Every structure is written in structure tokens, then in C-alpha cells.
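A common beginner's mistake is to predict each chain separately and then try to dock the pieces by hand. The better habit, illustrated here, is to supply every component at once so that their relative placement is modeled jointly.
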Amino acid sequence: MTRPDNTIQVAVSTVIFALRPDDQDLPALWTPFVARTRDPHLGRWALPGGWLSENEELEEVAARTLGETTGLHPSYLEQLYTFGARDRSPTGRVVSVVYWALVRADEIERAEPGENVQWFQADNLPDLAFDHNRIVDYALQRLRTKVEYADIAHSFLGETFTIAQLRTVHEAVLGHKLDAANFRRSVATSPDLVDTGEVLTGTPHRPPKLYRFTRTPNPTR
Amino acid sequence: MTRPDNTIQVAVSTVIFALRPDDQDLPALWTPFVARTRDPHLGRWALPGGWLSENEELEEVAARTLGETTGLHPSYLEQLYTFGARDRSPTGRVVSVVYWALVRADEIERAEPGENVQWFQADNLPDLAFDHNRIVDYALQRLRTKVEYADIAHSFLGETFTIAQLRTVHEAVLGHKLDAANFRRSVATSPDLVDTGEVLTGTPHRPPKLYRFTRTPNPTR
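With all components supplied together, the output reads:
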């Protein structure tokens, strides 16, 4: 139990998911990456992140590096998983503690990203640096198997939403279309959802009803 | 992004939960600890674990240190959470990747533990080394909020079980008694549970039916 010669480094990275229109203007899952400015993997896209320094908490590193690169400051970052496989970095052992968050489209519009940042559709990523493809795949899998879609929808849509908006969240996360009528029926019987009595403004006629969840969802759990 | 002077150490620890009789012979959650043989916290109880070495995978460290101390070799260890608060160790920054597993009573009976190992009831722990009380509390909370009690019961009880045995698992995890008749009713209507057609042997008359889950549960998720 004597402390070993220390050749292991600790890094912190963050996976951000947002719902944004794809090239056919349909909502899809997107995630931001930062171009690497040095070796290894110079020029490749990588998750926002950096080394853990002695005086920062893990989540502070996640929040700081995310802000510096993407301009995003999510109200809530959750620890996702720690990746530490021996062969994941070509320049020595690196243990990466990975955080994740879901952000709304208006948060992205307000953000001022750095020059080296680009958003990619989560189901169509380039060959990322290190094992970052594997990390995003893991995050996607966790998102898709989440029991509480209420939480996901709340993070992406905010407090109130139409049934059609809720369906687009489910479709974007699942990566395939859902039958609109079936979806409406299953949602109508959900005890978690209530009619707010309000409607979506700015729509011509028969404006759709706005709903909200009956409890305060936990953003990423 | 230059690698910082490396003063941060990575450790791996494991929380094991088992269902064992308490002093009134009622099933309760127990977890094993190892007495520290050096400073800091000499003599205090700590989670089984050790330093990450450059040539071992995270889970290998968890499995090895667990085997060396408790004699347990769970078929499945899952990563629980990574604890890295600045102040969690008095002798420098330590990031601990924590694994967990649920084990059956017969696995403990077969195990050959080391001399410095002792099991404690999870809801009545001594003042542990470092932040290990906090780690066990976190693990307990995760266990209690797990959606799938089928998974927990399967890990503790094995393939088949009586309704009464299943109730003791729920009671031990929740830390309080449940109404037997209500529990039986709620379980009887569960689509996840099937009557095996067999009964518990070794009981005098009216031997209780044995049930199993309809799917293969995932031990700690």
C-alpha cells in the first residue's frame, strides 16, 4: 500500500448533449468537440476537458474546461463514468473522469464558443481522439436506457412543452421515428404529465396544448 | 493542456453488500472493511482497495484487492462512482474510483478472508478512514433507489426464491419492515415473476412455492 511511483495522470472530460435540427430540420442529438492543438492526435476532435489540477474539484475542472471551449455553463453536471483502460492514451496512463449534461437549444444560442469548437450529430461522429468515440457511445447508451424520459425531456425542452415536442425528444434520443397517434395515446395516460391549461403561442389556428411534468425532474438521472 | 506536475494519486476501492442475519437473526445489509495497517488513519476500518498501478485495469485492482482481503471473487463488479474531493485524504490528493458488488451468503461462506477483515452492518458503521462513510452512504442510497429490485434480489438470493425471502431482501435494503400480505399481493401481480412449479424443500408442511424472475437481471444496475 506504499504509494507507487506516480506515472498515472487524471483528466476530466465532459459529454454534452443538445437537441438541435439536423440537415432536414428534424430534431437530432448533437454534441460539441474541440480540435486538439497538440499531439497526441493533433487536429482530431476531442471531448472538452483538461487535466485535474491539485486545487480544483473534479466537477470544477469539467465546468471550467467546458465553459472555456464551448461557452456553455450547464446548471447541472453529473458524473457519468471513469475511463481508465491501460491503452487509451499513447503517451502514458490517463484516467479520465467523465461528466455529462443535457442542454437546451437556447443555452447554446446564448453561448460564445471558442474557435476550435464544432458540434456534431451524435450518431454520425468523426474518428475522435483517444477513446472518445467509445465514451460518447457509452453516454448515448445511458441516455437511451434512462428510465425517466421526463428528466431528459425537461432538460432539453424546459418547463412546458407540447406533445409533439415531447415526441421529437424521444425520437431524437432513440434515433428513430415514433407513431404520433400511439405516442399521444401513451402520453395521455401517463400520471406524470399534466395539462397546464395554456397553449403554444405564435401558431396560427388550433394552437397545441402545453404540458408539464408533475414532479421536478433530476436532469441526468 | 501540458501535463501538470503529477501530485495526484489514483486508488481503487470496492463496496460489497451482502444479506446476512443481524443479532436478532433478521436479514440485514452487511459490508466488509479492512483495518488500516499504516498511517493515515492507522487502525481505522477502510474499504478494501489499493493504488492503481500502471499495468492493471481499474476493475482488476478492485477484484485483486477484494480477493486478497475478503477472499471474495464476485462474478460481477460494477463501477459505482469516482470520489476526488480535494480534502478527502490528509496526505495529498487521491482520486478513488469505487466499484461495488452484491454477493450471496454462500459466497461469503466459501471465502477465506484475511486477518484484518471484519463485516459491519451497513446502517451501523464505525467512523471509517478517509471519506469511506460517505462512500458507503452513497452506495446505500444508490441501492435503495434502484428501479429494479429484481436485480438486487437475484444477486442476493440466486435463481429461485420464496416470496418471504424476496420480502426480506426488500426489507433489508429499505431498512424497515413491509406488510407481508401487501407485499405478496404486489408481487403476485408483477409480470416479472413466475412460479417455477417447485417448492422450498426441507420445510415441514405447506412448503412455500419457489419463484424466479422472467429475465436475466443485471446484478448491480
